[in-house]
Amino acid sequence: MFATTLVDWFSKNGRDLPWRQTRDPYAIWLSEIILQQTQVKQGWEYWERFMHRWPTVEALAAATEDEVLREWQGLGYYSRARNLHYAARQIVERGSFPTTIAEIKQLKGVGDYTAAAIGSIAFGLPAAVVDGNVYRVLSRYFGIDTPINTTEGKKLFAAMAQEQLPPQEASVYNQAIMDFGAIQCTPQSPDCSVCPLMESCDAFRTNRIQELPVKLKTLKIRERHLIYLYIRYKGQTAIHRRGSGDIWQGLWEPWLVDDEHFSLLTSHSSLRLVKQGVKHVLTHRILYTDFYLWEPDKRPSLPSDYIWIPESDIDNYALPRLIEILLELLNSEV
Fold first, then answer.
1. What do you get for the CA distance between the two ends of the chain, in Å?
2. Judging by beta carbons within 10 Å of its beta carbon (0-12, 13-18, 19+), is residue 84 exposed, middle or buried?
């Protein structure tokens, strides 16, 4: 009854998305990677851009990482783009797109959920997806208060999701339960009066809609203070590529100055404050950033990993959103 009702609801209310008009595993995989941390409305545009520029996995694999990061700019969570590019080369190297859940999971950046989504939608494999929408629907309907971010909870919901999956309708059922959570059984104030599962929903009967699903608060948000110097010298500026082990790996940025260097510079250089305390929120931290413009009389000596480029060329480099904000502030003054 549960699965049948969802599939019936989906036939009338499911979202008309372009990657649902194909069984091409490349197009489906691309959509799933883009939508991992992105709303459908924003992800749709990026999916179309990627499909237009790189219509096949071979084309994507032949691109450079810089090109992929540049096209990804604005989506955030840039490790997804690097993993996407790496996985494209994995697929090309093996000669075809993998067709089993185990093989799909070997692709860089693909976990249980993404593998199940690709496998079921592209190949009809009987693998249940479990994401935030699925947790919410199952938790509310069956009245489960086991925290979804515990080992016990993950195992419980994975087993329950698989149990509810109709093997011959894996593709449509997985899409149905995800859309149901996104459209009908929403996190806040769902309209239960029009829900086809209302009468048999445990959370509705026990008035626990807003209490479920349960999630333990374990994430500690850290704050970090940054100082960026945008150097302008004879129409050029200096940037460098961020290394591994920190945020924005592989993206480009102006001079990120530590407190000691900043103190030295302010003592003998003329720096102009562009904006102070710009707040930028990431998943695990909040950044507070001061932006300065430095227009020196002679080209300064910088660490060896910095390159000088014409200011007009900076849009050719993949930049973090925070640096885009800096450039927007600078350009607004022109």
1. 63
2. buried
Among 32, 30, 22, 31, residue whose Cα is nearest residue 123: 22
- Judged by DSSP in three states, 258 sits in coil
pLDDT, tens digit (0-9, with 9 covering 90-100), for 70-124: 999 989 889 999 999 999 999 999 999 999 999 999 999 999 999 999 999 999 9
Measuring CA to CA, how many Å separate 9 from each of 13, 16, 120, 231, 312? 6, 14, 19, 57, 52
Active site residue 32: yes
Given 32, 93, 163, 211, which residue is catalytic?
32
Looking from the CA of 232 toward its CB, the CA atoms found within 13 Å total 13
The per-residue pLDDT for range 143-190, each reduced to its tens digit, is 999 999 999 999 999 999 999 999 999 999 999 999 999 999 999 999
Four-residue CA torsion sign, 54, 60, 66, 70: positive
Phi, psi of 122 (to 5 degrees): -85, -35
DSSP state of 212: -
Q: 213 preceded by cis ω (within 30°)?
A: yes
Strand ranges for the chain from DSSP E: 222-231, 236-241, 252-253, 255-256, 271-281, 285-294, 306-310
For the entire predicted model, the pTM comes to: 0.79
